[in-house]
Specification:
Elements (H helix, E strand, L loop, with lengths): L2 H34 L5 H5 L2 E2 L4 E2 L2 H32 L4 H14 L3 H15 L6 H25 L3 H9 L4 H30 L2 H6 L19 H10 L4 H39 L1
Antiparallel strand pairs: 1-2
Length: 284
């Protein structure tokens, strides 16, 4: 066979595999939508769970999930981005820096339940935060730090060194060059890492199980030291616990659909921000 024939075969195989992946995604989404759309209503979204969580709404779980996403983002985003800037722009490429990067990558592969146990030991027990939003947010923030650091470093490395050299040649300091040239150009790609971290936080169950999630708490939080319900753990509970699983199964599918919608909306918002920053960089 000629090289052109081999290329056509390879492209055909890749196209088929891509269509299979997209088809699998739509099949999963269609399954969740088909089984959960009948439960979605204003009462379901704004009400409190009743009758052993087989009826009522999931408002406390929605609010709890949003609180954890916001809290972990406030903690992880600045630390992760600043750590990546230091390791990429200031620390060089010595053995110690390489060791830190290897450890960061290894930390990203640690099972989330280990983070949950660590968070319970440090934030819940040692620091005395108890099962609370602050303990859960700190634990989830630590969980997403490796991902944010890694993606931010890659975004910074993608900026050609010529831009850094040009900034220094014009008399700007290294900090000014990073702040006014490198970061604005890299920020659209940095947002990609932030999107991935939000998606991971919103779906984690094990860390919040040890640090913040309540089995049944039909009320809204009033402070960062309150315990809350969360959609991932609530979904697990109503799908596996209770005496009437058949009655709670539609609630489980509805909860899963709401969780998917929340992640989708946040991804769309982050994508819109990425496009806005990309246009802003191009115009400057």
């Amino acid at each position: 066979m000629t090289a052109k024939t081999n290329q056509k075969i390879a492209f055909c195989v890749f196209r088929i595999l891509g269509m299979l992946v997209v088809g699998l995604l739509f099949w999963i989404l269609g399954f969740i939508i088909y089984n959960g759309i009948g439960v979605i209503s204003w009462e379901f979204l704004t009400g409190y769970p009743t009758a052993g969580m087989t009826s009522g709404g999931i408002l406390p779980a929605i609010v709890g999930t949003l609180c954890l996403i916001a809290g972990s983002s406030i903690i992880a985003f600045p630390l992760g981005i600043l750590s990546a800037i230091y390791s990429s722009e200031y620390a060089g490429n010595g053995k110690m820096v390489q060791f830190i990067r290897v450890m960061t990558n290894n930390l990203g592969g640690v099972p989330s339940i280990i983070f949950g146990l660590f968070g319970m030991a440090l934030f819940v027990n040692t620091l005395g935060f108890g099962d609370s939003i602050i303990a859960g947010s700190l634990t989830l923030g630590l969980l997403t730090l490796p991902l944010i650091i890694r993606t931010t470093e890659e975004a910074l490395k993608a900026i050609p060194d010529s831009f850094r050299t040009a900034g220094l040649a014009l008399g700007a300091t290294k900090l000014q060059t990073i702040n006014r040239v490198v970061l604005p150009m890299a920020f659209p790609n940095i947002i990609t890492g932030l999107i991935l971290s939000i998606g991971r936080v919103s779906g984690e169950t094990a860390p919040i199980l040890f640090t913040v999630a309540a089995y049944f708490l039909p009320k809204l939080p009033t402070g960062i030291f309150d315990q809350v319900m969360a959609l991932p753990y609530h979904l697990y509970v109503i799908a596996t616990s209770g005496t009437d699983l058949e009655a709670s199964r539609p609630m489980a599918y509805g909860t899963a659909l709401v969780l998917i919608i929340i992640v989708l909306l946040m991804n769309l918002l982050a994508t819109a921000l990425r496009r806005w920053f990309s246009k802003k960089v191009k115009t400057h």
